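Incident log entry.

Two folding requests arrived from the same account within the same minute. Monitoring flagged them as a possible duplicate submission, but the sequences differ. Recording both here for audit purposes.

Request one:
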Amino acid sequence: MKLRWKVAPIVGATLLGACGGGEPPPAPPKPPVPAAAAVAPPGAGGPGAAPVRPLDPGAGKALPAVAYEGKNRRDPFAPVSLATEAKGINVTAAKLVGIVQGRGATLALVEGPDGVGYILKNGDALGNGRVTAITGTTVTFAVSAQPGQGPTTVTLRLVLD
């Protein structure tokens, strides 16, 4: 019994010493030095000295201009505007090639006479018309009025092969 009381404090001290764990944690990293201070020329600095500007990254040799070779493709860096591209399209010349029904909306896949495809939702404009309704097999456009005519509607039907 006496041995148990002598061993218990030794075991407890050993366990507490092991929990503290060896080396102290590393010091927090120092904040980065501003670029102006890192690029100071010799002899500059000191109290009252003017701030030194960092080196200009664009001061090196100029890179040669790169020309884009389209090979009958659209320039991917040119801005795209559906209104300007589709301005000359007549809705009656377009062809309905597909309908996509999702949870939120139904989309119409329309191909223009030039072979360019458009993905349209209700309210989108294409050439001289605006989409008013999309069903499982049709898309309806409200066509703007021509001189001497009233506004009309055009319905494109999906042709299943």
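Request two (distinct sequence, not a duplicate):
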Amino acid sequence: MKTMFLAFTVLTVLGIAITMMKLEGRVRSAALLGLSVWLIYVGSLSYFGVIADTKHTLPGPAFIMIPVVLFAVLFLTRSKAAARIALIIPVSLLLGAQVFRVIVEIFLHHLAGMGLLPRMMTFEGANFDIVTGLSAPIVAWAYVTGRLSVNGAILWNIFGLFMLANIVIRAIMTTPGPLHQWVTEVPNLAIGIFPYSFIPGLMVPLALTLHILAIRSLRASSRV
């Protein structure tokens, strides 16, 4: 299981890196460097047990989620650099790439079967994120062929953000630590185990980034 997930993570990173090669010189270099530093940071946090340690004042997931939220608020939604990136990457790719979430959901299902996270966090429970992943290629096709309007595509992205927020909140509330508020059959242990920490540390930020860049790209196209 760990080997399969690590292989999926590597393939995901390669896909991100290949897409980043479409960017301009300095932006491309900064993006690749930032990705590398972030992967080392997240991997180190889980490998050395920082995320799983419940003795911290801050819950383990906060060491990942706080930087992700700051990145989204300060860079993705506001900066001109992010706006340029959104226009460089084809919107069909920004929409369709969300299909990767289907594979993430399959891994979550297996992790629940192993007793590493609650059933609530899977598509058999209260996690509906798989709907976003399954509909992503359809939405991308519909938009490109003119069957889906700009507003329709934006609404789908907003829906995807809500689905992402739903599972993130459930993950935090079921992880051992100061924010463990929801009692489930088993706690969310997977988040602190290497390499599964890349679910909140890579897969969640990737989904968030794709949604925000897609919305910025769609809004820009509607003003043309």
